[in-house]
Design goal:
Order of helices and strands: EEEHEHHEHEHHEH
CATH architecture of one domain: 3-Layer(aba) Sandwich
Mean pLDDT: 77
Distance between the termini: 102 Å
Strand content: 5-15%
Number of strands: 7
Strand order of the largest sheet: 4-5-3-6-7
Radius of gyration: 38 Å
Length: about 280
């Protein structure tokens, strides 16, 4: 059977769609031996609204909401000041290796602050970050504040900037459940710039601990350094003398003259356990 030239083809049939009026499904077309009276009943044409019927307005456009601050698929809480640790009941001995803490390790050049901080962070039972002030200070490559050239306005500004940057980093780590240990040569005779600055940047929950071995040990360790971090013996002795002002300050002091790195880290845990049970006022 041939269709007349130009005759209309049936529209395609989609699942769930009513066939167009005047077209029967292919499986029900009358065959050569079937009468036309056995074909399907005609489908009435669909009804359409009158031309005068009102057309509903389109829904109002809703602007897209800004995406939250995320890293990958993890939403990061904002970092805020670190509060004072809650003292446990008297019968409970706090475990500083399983507690989220913010620790500031203070000491002169050659005291072993960086080595102890790295070891302590590596051997804790909870995630812990080590933030070194010297490392952050050395991010600045032009106009670098070299400790060997002495103290000036440029080095003062660079140290302040490094401390504030370290404080921001510590607060963000702590807000996400990661402990922090920071190390810095904070002087007791400059409370506003040193310890007071760290308290402002991190929060009152920061636990300061002084690492202060004997002068002969500090001179020996400084002599093993290289690059700009190695100071003259005169400068090391001057810094060590100023650090002695921490005695009588109420801050815990560790004399690690006869301790290796691992032994100093164990004593640090003991000091922190006492600090958690009875937070120092500073």
């Amino acid at each position: 059977m041939q269709h007349a030239v130009g005759s209309e083809l049936p529209p395609p049939h989609r699942p769930g769609q009513v066939p167009h009026a005047g077209w029967a499904p292919a499986g029900h077309h009358p065959g050569p031996h079937q009468g036309s009276s056995q074909g399907p009943a005609p489908v009435p044409p669909p009804s359409f609204p009158a031309a005068s019927a009102p057309v509903p307005p389109p829904p109002p456009h809703t602007p897209a909401q800004p995406a939250p601050d995320t890293t990958g698929h993890l939403s990061l809480p904002p970092g805020g000041p670190v509060g004072v640790p809650m003292a446990p009941p008297a019968a409970v001995v706090p475990d500083p290796t399983a507690t989220t803490l913010a620790v500031l390790l203070i000491g002169p050049a050659g005291a072993g602050k960086t080595s102890v901080a790295k070891y302590w962070a590596d051997h804790r039972r909870v995630p812990t970050a080590h933030i070194s002030l010297d490392d952050v200070r050395e991010w600045v490559r032009s106009g670098f504040a070299d400790p060997q050239t002495g103290w000036n306005d440029n080095s003062e500004a660079q140290y302040r900037l490094a401390r504030r940057t370290c404080g921001f980093a510590a607060r963000n780590f702590l807000a996400n459940g990661i402990s922090c240990i920071l190390d810095d040569a904070v002087f007791p005779d400059r409370p506003v710039v040193g310890l007071g600055g760290w308290k402002r940047h991190v929060g009152p929950g920061l636990l300061p601990v002084v690492l202060l071995p004997g002068l002969d040990i500090v001179l020996e360790r400084n002599a093993e350094r290289s690059g700009n971090r190695r100071l003259t013996d005169e400068e090391v002795a001057r810094i060590h003398g100023r650090m002695a002002g921490w005695y009588g300050s109420g801050l815990p002091i560790i004399d690690n003259s006869q301790l290796d790195v691992a032994g100093t880290a164990r004593v640090l845990d003991e000091v922190l356990a006492r600090a958690i049970a009875s937070p120092p006022s500073w």
